[in-house]
Write a sequence for this structure.
């Protein structure tokens, strides 16, 4: 009955070309490749104590408080990864997790949470002699993907690419790869998350992904995403911020228009989401700033700007954007270097 204890801190990430849709013929296989900035401040810390035993037993706490409602998702995850590491379903798990961002901020914790857990499991596999250092992160990314697709990209910084794409060497549908061939302006790019709506989303990402199968615009979307990956790669290398803005905002609005044209249709934006977008557009028009937004599957707005503009952007947030945030809340973040053992 050996006991193992390990702990990892893993960040959240924000996709620029979005993953939206899974292939029906696989488990957690994306319909198109995606790419994200890894974040630095929004992260999950997970401590795992694993004791070998014949059956599976899970106990999980968030910020020290028991969270039995997390157990079914973790159990599903462990069963999904058991073909890679059969030991995972024979043990007692004591998982203690905490997020750096406030609970119920509307920020999805699945990317940081699932990647942190995947990394902990890989540590145990390594200790058992089942995993070498060379493929450690790749395997952790593969495990994370089986928990939540976007989690696969969180283990690396400054960017992660998930999904096979001919322009990204080594890219795969099974795991994400690191992407770092980027212009210096992007290495410390800022992302202030404007917390427009802190409540639970009405439709989960998993349900949203499912609605892409049979969606009337699906095929065109997959072609567009593929082209946008090619285009964004060039933009990330050249540092062309006008092109960056045009592509990133189009991706965000396309994601939400896919939701609005699903059957059944749904809207995750709130009226404040649009107000923030309009304020950013008006500012850009008036002052020529290179600031833009992206959205994930929710109402919050990720406000993106270069590090050099941080002071001016913060003033703009305080004066013009904060009013649209629930209780005036926002979180400053920036591009980070991926997960770390703690
Ligand atoms: C809109 O990774 O949360 O954030 O694989 O079902 O867990 P599951 O979905 P999830 O979907 C994220 C979708 C997105 C875009 C993205 O991160 O690429």
């Amino acid at each position: 009955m050996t006991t193992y204890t390990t702990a990892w801190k893993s960040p959240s990430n924000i996709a620029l070309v979005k993953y939206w849709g899974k292939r029906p013929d696989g488990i957690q296989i994306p319909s198109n490749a995606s790419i994200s900035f890894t974040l630095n401040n929004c992260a999950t810390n997970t401590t795992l104590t694993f004791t070998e035993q014949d059956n599976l037993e899970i106990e999980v706490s968030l910020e020290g408080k028991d969270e039995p409602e997390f157990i079914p998702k973790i159990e599903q995850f462990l069963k999904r990864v058991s073909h890679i590491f059969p030991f995972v379903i024979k043990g007692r798990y004591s998982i203690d997790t905490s997020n750096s961002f406030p609970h119920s901020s509307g920020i999805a914790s699945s990317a940081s949470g699932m990647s942190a857990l995947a990394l902990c499991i890989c540590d145990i596999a390594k200790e058992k002699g089942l995993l070498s250092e060379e493929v450690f992160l790749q395997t952790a990314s593969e495990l994370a993907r089986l928990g939540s697709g976007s989690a696969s990209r969180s283990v690396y910084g400054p960017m992660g690419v998930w999904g096979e794409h001919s322009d990204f060497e080594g890219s795969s549908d099974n795991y994400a790869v690191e992407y770092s061939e980027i212009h210096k302006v992007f290495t410390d790019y800022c992302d202030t998350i404007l917390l427009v709506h802190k409540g639970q989303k009405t439709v989960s990402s998993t349900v949203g992904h499912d609605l892409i199968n049979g969606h009337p615009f699906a095929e065109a979307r997959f072609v567009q995403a593929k082209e946008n990956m090619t285009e964004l790669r060039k933009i990330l290398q050249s540092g062309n911020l006008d092109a960056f803005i045009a592509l990133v905002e189009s991706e965000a609005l396309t994601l939400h228009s896919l939701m609005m044209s699903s059957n059944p249709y749904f809207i995750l934006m709130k009226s404040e989401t649009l107000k923030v977008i309009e304020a950013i557009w008006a500012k850009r028009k008036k002052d020529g700033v290179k600031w833009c937004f992206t959205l994930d599957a929710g109402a919050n707005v990720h406000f993106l700007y270069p590090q050099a503009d941080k002071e001016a952007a913060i003033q703009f947030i305080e004066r013009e954007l904060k009013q649209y945030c629930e209780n005036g809340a926002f979180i400053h973040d920036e591009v980070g270097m991926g997960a770390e053992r703690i």
